[in-house]
Design goal:
The complex is a heterodimer of chains A (86) and B (204). Chain A is built from two helices and no strands. Chain A is mainly alpha-helical and 86 residues long. The N and C termini of chain A lie far apart (116 Å). With 204 residues, chain B is an all-alpha fold. In chain B, 55% of the residues lie in helices and 0% in strands. Chain B is built from six helices and no strands. Chain B has helices at residues 2-6, 8-55, 58-96, 125-136, 139-142, 157-160. Chain B starts with a helix and ends in a 44-residue tail after the last helix. The chains are: A mainly alpha (86), B mainly alpha (204). The interface between A and B is large, with 49 and 52 residues.
Amino acid sequence: MTLWWIGDAVLVLVVLPVVVYLLRGVLNAASSIVPSVERIAAATGSGSADLDAVPLLLTTQSQVNQTVAGVAGYGGSLDVILDDAE
Amino acid sequence: MMLLAIGPGTGSIVAVVLIVLALVWYLVSTIVQLRKITDGLDVVIANVGEILAKTAPVEEVVGAINKDLDAGVDLLEGLLVKKAGLVDAVGLVDGLYPGAAAAGLRNYPDSTTVKAPRIAEVYTRGVLTLARLGREAPIAAASPAGTVLRNVEGGSLAARLLYPEMRQSRPPALPRSPVIGTDAPVQYEERDDIGAPRKRLPAR
């Protein structure tokens, strides 16, 4: 009978606090992850929005191509007009 | 007395119930937090997928742009060195971008050893070529809709300034021409021989 009471006391005074301590640690760890995930989601959303201008690179490519072609034509004309250095 | 009435079995049941309640409370709370994490990661995965889709063609497009720009740089460098010479080309680049002569021209490794002339202060062949271009080249005539580079018909001072300074820019410094006439400030005596019959030379 006394040993049973001692067992009950151990359950309440030792096992229960240990269980609560461990579970509270797991809960705190899980709770601390949530804000980080929310910030990551917001950052990736902003990054994705920033990349909306990427298709303009196609326009840039076309403009660069036309500019280089114009420079090539102008350079050809200058090559004819100007004398060489040597 | 009350404790004895309850008995150790009841105490065990109460202890187990307390432990189970603690387990339920904390495990349910953990499950809720893990659900939030899962939802957040779903959003992250969707956004990362969008980023991957949007950045997929970037490498190809930027590579093509760099290829075009490399061709333009090669063209301009070659033309500059061909027309101005390597030394003047380095000087011109260094005049436009101070310190750039140390890096040299990309396609001319020898350009890094060239001592860049101070082309901004000394007239060089390149400058004279440009000056000649302003007078003779048909560039102005080729763009009649726009502003001409130089008025090749009316403007002459710019061209005259290319030559040693004599009288083209400061005519007031020269002595003025003499004033003649009856009301001139300086009167000269009339010479007798003017208007008289020419003296006949003795016959041979």
